[in-house]
Amino acid sequence: MRMICGSYYWPKEDKLKPEGDDAHFICAQEQTIGMADGVGGWAKHGVDAGQYARELMCNSIMSVQKQTIVDPRRVLNEAYADTKCEGSSTACIVTLRETGVLHFVNVGDSGLMVFRNYKLLYMSPREQRSFNCPYQLGNSRGSDNPRSATEIEIRVFPGDIVVLGTDGLWDNMYPNEIEQVVLGNMRESRVMKSQALACLLADLAWLRSLDKDSFSPYSKAAQEAGKNHPGGKKDDITVVVGHIMVTSPVCSCVEDFVDRPLEIIWDNTKPVERATSTPW
Predict the structure, then answer these.
(1) What is the pTM of this model?
(2) 82, 91, 96, 266: most buried, per Cβ within 10 A?
């Protein structure tokens, strides 16, 4: 199996920081993707957290490329140790093993969805201490380190679709809305490229972020925290889509896997009992 990936990035409009605070990479040969979201609160201290995110992802690429078998936990550990910039960021690293296992390591409020037969099968938990306060890697006192990471391994099959996004996606689109986009576009055109789906999701999230009247996921979370924030959340938006594809001519047809239930092989947030049911 191979994970065919495409990505799209919408930086928040800011003339002082045209690159925004997000960073991401796709290492196609190593079947590994990653993203980081610099914490914007550093701006009030005169620090561009986007530089931390970009350095962290550059160091992640170097770690990936020197490993024979990519271990996302090791990638995150090494990248974190080598990143010396001021600032902090969330981070997640995802790799597809030859055995059909998707290995995901995450710190913060970026996240991952897995779709099977165009339906949402799994959504990773978001790491936040409180409303709009994600876990974050950094060198300053109070920042987190990779030991805080959620680590999950999921069995995937040909035809599965992986959507990885920073909080700019999740804060502006509900899971069922993303599912409808996947269903409406991938089902009608199985040849729709990962790049096109990533672009479509990012565009929709961006449009929602500009809607001052919508009751967005961010509005809902604010309300639950006793705060008031109508409309979407203007933010950097990064989306990476991976389509799990058959590479071997002797492999079973995609239709053979559409009814397979969720199989979580490892979840370090549930060390005693392994979850096997869909959390949605």
Answers:
(1) 0.93
(2) 91
